[in-house]
Design a protein that fits this description.
Number of strands: 20
Mean pLDDT: 88
CATH architecture of the largest domain: 3-Layer(aba) Sandwich
Strand order of the largest sheet: 3-4-5-2-6-7-1-8
Helix content: 25-40%
Largest sheet: 8 strands, mixed
Number of domains: 2
CATH topology of the largest domain: Rossmann fold
Structural class: alpha/beta
Strand content: 15-25%
Radius of gyration: 27 Å
Length: 506
C-alpha cells in the first residue's frame, strides 16, 4: 500500500477523530485543519473496516457540498491533494464524481455530490453508504442532514459482514446563531416560533457530538472594549501546517464580522457588502423592551413564500409602524406555514383585524398541488392578498420612507428586540453584494441570502399596508413612451423648427 502519514495538530482535532459517535460535527476557523481531518477520517475508518469473506475491506462514502463549483474547486481539490490519482487510483470526472481507491486489501469508493444539482440530491436519496462527510455544513439545511443519517450503515450489507463503523461527519466555519448547528449543540435555545413537532428535531440525540476548535487569534481591546489589534493564539490548531504569519495576513483589510466568523470562530453573519438600509440606527429603530400588541388596531402580516417562508407582523399606531414579530421557517411548504401563521394569529392577535399581504408570485400555483399559496392561506381562514408590486426599488423605498420618518419626535419605525433576523439584516446581513471587480462596486439588487426572505416579507407588509400606495401615487403617469431613432446624429442633424418638444408631447 502507498505510504500515508498524517498527525492531527490540536486537542480538538484529536478528540474528533478518536470519537465514535454516530454524528460528529467539527467547527473551527479557516485553516484549522477541519477539511483535511475529515478526509483522513474517511480513509482511517476505511482501514478499520473488517474484512469480508473474500479478504477485502470494502466501504463506500459520499462527500457533500452545497454547490458544484465549491465541490470542484475546494472539496475535491483538498481530497486529491491527499489522495492524488497517480498514487491512489482513477478519479471519475463525470457526474457523480467518484474516486476508486484499491490498495492491498482496501477497496474504498468515494462519491462527491453537490446539492445544487437535482440529480445529485436524487442520487443521495438512493445510495447505500458506509458514511457521509458534509463539507461546510453551515450551507446545508437540517433536512439534508436527516436524509444523510438514513443512507449510512447500509454498505457493506449485513450479509457481507456489515459496517465496522458507520455515521455522518461534518465540518463548518461558524454559522449564524439561528442555524441548526448552534441550536443542536446547545449554544443557543430553540426559537419560540418553531412548531413543537419541528422543535423536537432540533434536540441533540445522545449519539451526536459537536466539537469546537479554539480561535486562531486573540483580540487586543482598549478601555472602552473596542478591538484595536489581533495577536496569535498559542492554542490555535493546525499551526504546524500553516505559515506563522498566515492569520496576521488574512485579517488585514477584513471587516470585524468576517474576522469574527473565519478567525475567531464566533457565531455570526459576514457583512462584506453594502447595507441595504444605511439609515438604520439600532438606538433609534429598536425598542428597548418588547412591544405590546395594540388591542383593536389592524395587524398587517407580510409574507414571503418559497421553501424558506417568512412573515413579519406589524401595526400602525398613531402614525408609527411597530414591528411586533417575525416568523422564519426552513424547508417548510406553504401548507404547513399557513398553519403556523394561523396558530400565531389565534394565540396573539385574536382581537385584531388581520390582513396578510404576500409576494405577488403567490398567485401562481404551488408545486405541492393545484392551489396557489394565496388560496391555501384563504383555505385556512386567513385574509390574504398580493402586494401591489414586486418591483424591488419600490419595495425598498416603502421601507426607507418609514425609517426616515419622525412622528411627534419619535421614529416612525420601531422594531421589537425579539425580531432577531430582521435586526441582523438591518445591521448589514441584508446587503448589496460586493462585485468581484476593482474598486468599491456592488450589485444593484440585494443579495439573496438568509436575510432576504424576512426582509422581502417586511417590504410586502409596507407595500400592502399603504406605504406602497403613497410611493406609487408620486410616480408620474407617462402615457406615451418616447423612443430615439438609431440613425439620429446629435452632431450633424439639425432639429426641425416645427417639431414639438419631448416634454410637450408627454
Amino acid at each position: 500500500m502507498t505510504k500515508f502519514k498524517y498527525k492531527p495538530d490540536g486537542d480538538v482535532l484529536k478528540s474528533f477523530m478518536k470519537d465514535d459517535s454516530f454524528f460528529r460535527g467539527l467547527r473551527g476557523p479557516v485553516g484549522s485543519g477541519k477539511s483535511v481531518g475529515c478526509c483522513v477520517e474517511i480513509f482511517r475508518r476505511a482501514l478499520q473496516q473488517e474484512k469480508g469473506q473474500d479478504g477485502k475491506r470494502r466501504s463506500r462514502w459520499a462527500i457533500i457540498r452545497n454547490t458544484n463549483p465549491q465541490l470542484r474547486t475546494t472539496t475535491i481539490k483538498t481530497w486529491l491533494d491527499w489522495f492524488p490519482e497517480a498514487e491512489w487510483g482513477k478519479f471519475l470526472w463525470s457526474v457523480p464524481y467518484t474516486h476508486w481507491i484499491k490498495q492491498g486489501d482496501l477497496e474504498l469508493e468515494v462519491i462527491f455530490l453537490a446539492l445544487d444539482r437535482p440529480e445529485d440530491v436524487k442520487k443521495l436519496l438512493s445510495l447505500e453508504l458506509t458514511g457521509i462527510w458534509i463539507n461546510e455544513a453551515r450551507e446545508i439545511p437540517k433536512s439534508i442532514i436527516d436524509a444523510c443519517t438514513m443512507r449510512v450503515g447500509r454498505y457493506p450489507s449485513m450479509r457481507d459482514g456489515g459496517c465496522t463503523w458507520t455515521g455522518v461527519i461534518a465540518d463548518t466555519n461558524a454559522p449564524e446563531e439561528d442555524h441548526w448547528w448552534p441550536i443542536m449543540s446547545g449554544e443557543v435555545p430553540i426559537p419560540d416560533h418553531i412548531p413543537k413537532e419541528e422543535a423536537k428535531m432540533l434536540v441533540k440525540p445522545d449519539n451526536w457530538l459537536f466539537f469546537t476548535q479554539p480561535p486562531a487569534m486573540h483580540e487586543d481591546k482598549d478601555q472602552d472594549g473596542n478591538v484595536t489589534a489581533y495577536h496569535s493564539n498559542d492554542n490555535a490548531e493546525n499551526k504546524v501546517n500553516m505559515r506563522s504569519d498566515y492569520y496576521t495576513n488574512i485579517v488585514q483589510g477584513k471587516t470585524k464580522s468576517w474576522i469574527d466568523v473565519y478567525v475567531m470562530n464566533r457565531l455570526g453573519t459576514i457583512q462584506d457588502g453594502k447595507p441595504v438600509y444605511p439609515m438604520f440606527a439600532p438606538d433609534v429603530h429598536i425598542a428597548k423592551e418588547e412591544i405590546p400588541v395594540a388591542s383593536g388596531v389592524p395587524v398587517y402580516i407580510g409574507v414571503d413564500f418559497g421553501l424558506t417562508p417568512a412573515a413579519v407582523f406589524g401595526q400602525k399606531v398613531r402614525g408609527r409602524w411597530l414591528i411586533l414579530q417575525e416568523v422564519v421557517a426552513f424547508d417548510m411548504g406553504i401548507v404547513k406555514f399557513s398553519e403556523v401563521l394561523r396558530i400565531e394569529i389565534a394565540s396573539r392577535y385574536s382581537d385584531c383585524e388581520v390582513n396578510i399581504i404576500g409576494d405577488p408570485a403567490g398567485d401562481f400555483r404551488a408545486q405541492t398541488d393545484e392551489s396557489t399559496p394565496f388560496q391555501i392561506l384563504r383555505g385556512c381562514g386567513l385574509k390574504a392578498r398580493p402586494a401591489q408590486s414586486n418591483d424591488v426599488s419600490l419595495r425598498l423605498e416603502a421601507v426607507n420612507a418609514t425609517l426616515s420618518r419622525m412622528v411627534e419626535g419619535q421614529s416612525g419605525f420601531l422594531l421589537d428586540p425579539r425580531c432577531r433576523t430582521l435586526i441582523k439584516g438591518f445591521e448589514g446581513g441584508y446587503q448589496y453584494k460586493r462585485m468581484q471587480v476593482s474598486g468599491e462596486r456592488f450589485d444593484d439588487k440585494p443579495e439573496k441570502n438568509h436575510f432576504s426572505h424576512i426582509h422581502d416579507a417586511l417590504q410586502y407588509l409596507m407595500m400592502g399596508a399603504g406605504e406602497g400606495r403613497n410611493i406609487l401615487s408620486n410616480i408620474p403617469n407617462i402615457s406615451k413612451p418616447f423612443q430615439a431613432k438609431m440613425e439620429f446624429d446629435v452632431f450633424t442633424r439639425k432639429p426641425k423648427q416645427k417639431r414639438q418638444s419631448l416634454w410637450a408631447r408627454m
